[in-house]
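Hey Z.,

So I finally got round to the glutathione thing we talked about over coffee. Here's the setup:
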Amino acid sequence: MTTLYADALWESPWVFSALVALEEKRVPYRTQVLDLDRGEQRDPDYVSRTLTARVPTLEHDGFYLGESKAIIEYLEEVFPGPEYPRLLPSDRRQRARARQILGWLRTDLFALRKERPSSTLFFSPATEPMSDRARADAGKLVRVASELVRSATATIFDEWSIADAELAFALQRLVVNSEPVPEPLGGYVAAQWSRPCIRAFVTQPRPTKH
Ligand SMILES: N[C@@H](CCC(=O)N[C@@H](CS)C(=O)NCC(=O)O)C(=O)O
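And the result:
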């Protein structure tokens, strides 16, 4: 049996990535939510099983694995293409580039991520204007995305990959907060957002946020 441990608000970009990966692979799984505000991730049993005590965590046949990128790589190995839909490109250089994008989205754009948090995608938009640093991050994101995305219906590589989902999530930080996003990026985000594996995350029932 496979279980994905997720935040109860369903707003974590890293839970997003893990759930999209499971959906894309079309493997049966269940979800278990943890209320992070109440510290449920610090339950001693969860801590000892998961090592790093965060979400997402994947449990697969008794093996607990944290860190979304590790989860993606694990799912890709356990449920490999072409038997299962791929999460990463089959071409070596494209696969390396996809890993570059995943790594970059986890380690850069901090001001944008702080001022346009993922909660704004699913609850309410930001009310404060962006700082110069967040604006610089937004400019970098748009520049990189414009290099990668050639048309609204295109994918970054020859086939869809998890990098498309994560890039669309990052761009949504601008779209939902009415920041200008040039075409074809706006159309690309909309097209990605209608993909069934992504809809599965977007349509998760969420509690009301206070
Ligand atoms: N690098 C990790 C980030 C995971 C992460 O930041 N998880 C947050 C929720 S978004 C969390 O579990 N926070 C609770 C805590 O650290 O106690 C990944 O990619 O999975």
